[in-house]
Amino acid sequence: MTQTYLLEWMDVTVTSTLNPNKTDLKMITPVQSRAIIKKATEQTFLIQSQFTIQVFSLTKEKQIKILVGNYHSALLFLLDKIREINSRDDLDRVNLKEVTAALISCLDELITFVESRFANYLSAPFQIIEKKISTPVVMNNISGKVLCKLSTDQTALILRASDELKILISKSMNHLFKTIVPFLSTPNRADLSYNAMRSKAYVFEERDKQIAIETLERMIKQIKEY
What we know:
The protein has a two-stranded parallel ribbon. The chain is mostly helical. 59% of the residues lie in helices and 2% in strands.
């Protein structure tokens, strides 16, 4: 039975519409950018629903593994492509940065969805080991959390850079934040939302960017003195 390719719109948008080698990105207007962001959000919910239906329409485990593996690989490919576009020096318009940030977030969400819902059907290198915490962690001297003196926005920038430079390697940026952030706290907040921090990695103030850079420069200086 032939099944619909659910990532068709995402695929065309990343590999063609937003591909600077195929499209003059300067021609994309703010109105078009908002339309792409809206469509991406709608597609994210639709894909999750339709993908689940496709999986449960199959009766053989081998078929399910192939389907899940193919979609997982395709999502990782598209995420790498949109990150590559997002990191271009000539992508300096705010509306385009918002588009690429939205697509990165949507693709991260879809990857997490596949990895969490269908982990048993992924090959060994992609299987996810989830650690469930039954009791909430309260910020105090014995909470076990690491206190980070940077703000949420500043920490998000450093984690994003660590992910994109493959200093910290995870299945996806969403998985990276989901794994690390619950064990962090800030002077102002005991419990941090990994989703909120991840979004801050793409929407931040210039001042936070500067503080993150200054912090890393201080670390470099410190290492040089060892």
